[in-house]
Amino acid sequence: MPHLLRQNMLLPNPPTVVMHDPRTHLRHLPPAYSPAQTPLSRERDFAPQVRYNLESPRKPKFRPCKVIFVGDCAVGKTAIVNRFCFDKFQSNYKATIGVDFELINFSILGHNYSLEMWDTAGQERFKCIAGAYYRNASVIVVTYDMSKRDTLESAKKWLHSALNYNTSQKPLIFLVGTKADLLTKEEFVRMERLAGLVAAELQAEYWSVSARSGFKVTEFFQRIAGLAFEEAVKQELKSIKNNPKETATQSSVKSQTFDLRSFFSSRFSPQKNGCAC
């Protein structure tokens, strides 16, 4: 009988618990793959001025960050993007024709920030088409296959080509070695040593990842989002410093002055209609 009563009672549905994806919710600046060698940022967290600016009542709106992936054909550009965006891996990827596009949203220090990831084709016949998508890139990811040393040499040419389309700004540069799972321990150490020299030459931050096993893929994309977000905040602070009057006008809040005399006079003065008591 109590069981039947419980079935007939109209009970409210239990509240749904929304779990935030820890991969895309950042409260601290993700560390570098090699903190001692990165030319981008050796700080362990976001700069104090960045946090201070974000705590102000004014809520800044950030444009999506354009990230382009360049490198030889079949080095694993599509594989690492799909591993992070969809948590999947396929060993028989078809070669990218032209450009593929993915959008991933982050929440960084409570603010929305998006990465536009442009996966460009690595075949020479599509280089002219892909070059049209290089412009206005905030981040350039130069990718090479750790099991093929010649793709590391080609990385310099790909970066030079991408930078030719981005002369007005200085994008963040990453050199990423893929397919780390295919190497032995000795080969892995040897290739990382060579890639570290190339990264220093290119003024790029180096990472080794594996789309098949997921090794360091999440940490790599978090690092991109964190550094790009910090750079966007710093650019906003720079624009505020250069245009203080315009920014103050846009972000000012209308203050209302409180006159104590007018308050009491309006409250206790005789009204036109009816009794004033």
UniProtKB/TrEMBL annotation:
Give the Enzyme Commission number. Answer: 3.6.5.2
Q: Which cofactor does it need?
A: Mg(2+)
SMART domains linked to this entry: RAB, RAN, RAS, RHO
Keyword Magnesium listed? The answer is: yes
Alphabetically ordered keywords of this record: Golgi apparatus, GTP-binding, Hydrolase, Lipoprotein, Magnesium, Membrane, Metal-binding, Nucleotide-binding, Prenylation, Protein transport, Transport
| An annotated Gene Ontology molecular function | GTP binding
List the GO terms this entry assigns under cellular component, sorted alphabetically.
Golgi membrane
- Give the enzyme class: hydrolase
> What compartments host this protein?
Golgi apparatus membrane
Q: What is its main location?
A: Golgi
Q: How does it sit in the membrane?
A: Lipid-anchor
GO terms in the biological process aspect are: protein transport
Q: What's the catalysed reaction?
A: GTP + H2O = GDP + phosphate + H(+)
Keyword check for Membrane, yes or no. Answer: yes
> Gene3D superfamilies from the entry?
P-loop containing nucleotide triphosphate hydrolases
* InterPro entries per record: P-loop_NTPase, Rab, Small_GTP-bd, Small_GTPase
- Mind telling me which Pfam families this protein's record contains? Ras
The function of this protein is: The small GTPases Rab are key regulators of intracellular membrane trafficking, from the formation of transport vesicles to their fusion with membranes. Rabs cycle between an inactive GDP-bound form and an active GTP-bound form that is able to recruit to membranes different sets of downstream effectors directly responsible for vesicle formation, movement, tethering and fusion.
Q: Which protein family is it in? A: Belongs to the small GTPase superfamily. Rab family.
Q: Write the protein's name.
A: Ras-related protein Rab-36
Annotated gene? LOC108039940
